[in-house]
Amino acid sequence: MTDTVFGKIIRGEIPCNKVYEDEKVLAFLDINPLAEGHVLVVPKEAAETLDLLSDESAAAIGRVLPRLCRAVVAATGVKEYNVLENNGQGAHQAVPHVHFHIIPKPNSREGLGIGWPARGLEREAAASLARRIAGAIA
């Protein structure tokens, strides 16, 4: 286990407001929430970014994430929410341990605020990029 704050929470060295736990996953309230009900979903496996996470831990998160989203909606009454996962400091990852945020969006002032600087993609460049990505899938 890495010596991140999440590793310490998983090991019980730092307390948390736990909402879910199984052998692979721990979920708890964020201590600096963007909205009431902001939950962090953390694999117990120490992996800094999603691409380094094992298929087994990724599947465990995939199984529980929808259930946790339903629970947050039921508990808060907020039907709109974001699920966010950042990889690397440049992508705004603050703790170097994979974690997903479930962030309720009750109104325009609370929850996650994002910009989406979309741009065009040329057909030929898109086809080439799709082939490169498909070819890199292990």
Features:
138 residues, alpha+beta, HIT family, subunit A, 3 helices, 5 strands
- The fraction of residues in strands falls at 15-25%
Radius of gyration, whole Å: 17 Å
Number of domains: 1
Total number of helical segments?
3
**Name of the level-1 CATH class:** Alpha Beta
The ordered string of helix (H) and strand (E) elements is HEEEHEEH
Report on this structure:
This protein has 138 residues and is an alpha+beta fold. It has a single domain, classed as 2-Layer Sandwich (HIT family, subunit A), CATH 3.30.428.10. The protein has helices at 5-10, 55-76, 123-136, and strands at residues 18-21, 25-29, 39-43, 81-84, 100-104. A 5-stranded antiparallel beta sheet has the order 1-2-3-5-4, with helices on one face. The relative contact order is 0.17. The mean pLDDT is 95.
Secondary structure layout:
Blueprint: H1 5-10, E1 18-21, E2 25-29, E3 39-43, H2 55-76, E4 81-84, E5 100-104, H3 123-136
Antiparallel strand pairs: 1-2, 2-3, 3-5, 4-5
